[in-house]
Amino acid sequence: MSIEIQDLHVRYGEQVAVSGLSLTVPEGSCFGLLGPNGAGKSSTIRCIATTQAPTSGTIRVGGKDVATEGAAVRALLGVVPQGLAVYDGLTVQQNLRIFGGLYGLEGAKLAERVKWGLELSQLGAHATKKAVELSGGMKRRLNIAAALLHDPKILIFDEPTAGVDPQSRNHIFETVRALHAEGRTVVYTTHYMEEVEALCDRVAIVDHGKLAACDALPALLARAAPTGFHVTLKAPAPLADVRARLEAAGFDLAEVAAEGRTLESAFLELTGRGLRDAS
Amino acid sequence: MNAFFWILRKDLGVFFSDRKGAAMVIIVPLVLGAMMGLIFDPGGGTGKLDVIVVDDDHGAAVGDLVARLGAEPSLNVLPKTEAEAREAVTGGKTGVAIRFAPGTSPKLTPAALFASGDRDGLTLWVDPSRKTEADIVTGLLTKAMMESVFSAVGDPTQQQKMFQDLRAGLGADAAARPELAKFLEDGAGFAGENDARAKDPATAGSGGMALKPPLDVKTETLVAAGPTAGFQSYAHTFAGMLMQFLLFSASGQARNLYAERDAGTLDRLRMTRASKAQILLGSAASVGVVSLMATAVVFGVGMAFFGITLRSGPLAFFVVALGQAAFVGSFAILLAGLANSSKQLDAVATLLILALCFVSGAWVPTFMLPHALQSAGPLVPTRWLLDGMAGATWRGLGLGHALECAGVLFGFAVVFSGIAVKRFRWG
Q1: Residues 245-274 (A) with a CB less than 8 A from some CB of B
Q2: Can you spell out the DSSP letters for A80-128?
Q3: A3-226 has which CATH code?
Q4: To the nearest whole angstrom, how far is the Cα of A228 from the nearest Cα of chain B?
Q5: Residue of A nearest to B272 (CA)
Q6: In which element (H, E) is residue B334 found?
Q7: Chain-wide mean pLDDT for chain A?
Q8: ipTM
Q9: B residues 362..421 contacting A (CB < 8 A)
Q10: Chain B nearest CA to A63, separation (Å)
Q11: Domain spans in chain A, listed from the N-terminal domain onward
């Protein structure tokens, strides 16, 4: 299932949010949508999700026109909103049941998908807790599960990791990867470039409501002039030795840094990768 | 600038950022103030009390009395037949009816002020929930009777002189003017009796006999459930208070819709199969269910501890309660559709709820309202709701009346829902 956007324009009065955007999200891709604040990402997502009517232009989702086949488009889409759009006063299970019911699930199928949602979000132990009692990360996972109950073919994640701890973020990454691996098309918007690099195979960058670039991730990265080289050693060696030997070989070095040990990786190594609130 | 002024500046900025909402904060008290002024201003207050007159006498004296009642600025006299009058009072459409029986006119004479014979002929039919209106009518009726009777003998100054002149020269004219002669004889007898009572040690100090209107006013309360059924004030007050609570509860639900809009859950609902109408009507239905539950509890307690009875049967009560649920549910989404922010909502809800309560008579008796507002009663759902509740409980007006009131409430619900679906904005 692909998404095809043709000459999309969105205006709010005098303000232009999207101006002639055209792009295609190929079927089965994990597509990163990047752009600074106000670039038009959210307006584009809202148009795809049928909650915002374009000023002009066409969008087809899985071959369905969002303007005329809204219900069919919504059945194909699972949209994970940026905000924590769950009902605080209801339990985890009630939230899932209600959203599943609203997606048209009933009876045994509904029960099965709610169980799946609890497993996906690893909130089974908290099924009877009210959403208001959940931590930010747990709510974020519930927010994701609620959007996927109807087994959509196309998933849209709108900044899904905002305000979560590294463990929950890691879990969300694994969830996105697993869903993508099942053949679903994924659109992922975020401000965190490393998330796109970690997850996406194709990336579009929008700015001022227009498409600045759209390509496969390696091709997009190749467009920038190299500022350094990545050297992989066959066997580990002290960083000082590597630096000394490169200098001895006559290179004028600006920086030599060890890779594979970011602050986040160190944090996860020290605190563990498992979710703290899964049980 | 210290923190206090920064906070002040910030809050004023936030307040006026919603200009319509800010304007309504000023407009609503103005409208309410004007409304209250209209009701209570003695000069401009044009409130008229409806009173039905059934003239089965057709005599000149009763005709004169009816004309005097009609000239009263605070009364709106409605000539009807006996059957029409009974139906109107029983159904609560009019609070008081006056019936003049055949043969009443001859009793409306000055002599009757003193005579102690037959004083029947005048009946007041009264809705027991509106006894205040009956008291007002009784007072004005008595005044009209006295004026009518005394008009036969001139104004008070002339009466005094006439008494003196007639006393001096009555002998020769007594046969030609028997009515006046009788009046003076009765007057003399009345004075003599008073004098005798004053001198009698057994009755001395107990006060003299007073002048009386020529007719006694006999009052009968009319209730469809029967002459012994009587008024149940708790049924009346429970219905009124419940209605107000439910209307405020409906405005709370409208506020929830805005909260959902802000939180993003409304957008999430839109991404499901649910249509706008389904989302709004589902929300309205939740208010309706709460309304039914609250009604069951309030009237259940009322029946158990406050003597409320469902004189039209439980089915009629349930029908009206369903109408009420539909009305308050649709009112919730109507508010959400009419306003566009929480601030606007507060103003619109306050204005509409107060207006609906005023016009329905939930706060002040309807006869205190300007006549135009009294006439507007059938145009507001709350009047039908309170009528329906009264009919289903203490009035005992039966299932037909309940169906009529509930039908009108459902009609309002359909119109309100239509407006809400058309006007509600997602963001």
Answers
A1: none
A2: E-SS--S-TTSBHHHHHHHHHHHTT--HHHHHHHHHHHHHHHT-GGGTT
A3: 3.40.50.300
A4: 44
A5: A103
A6: helix B314-338
A7: 88
A8: 0.80
A9: none
A10: 18
A11: 3-226
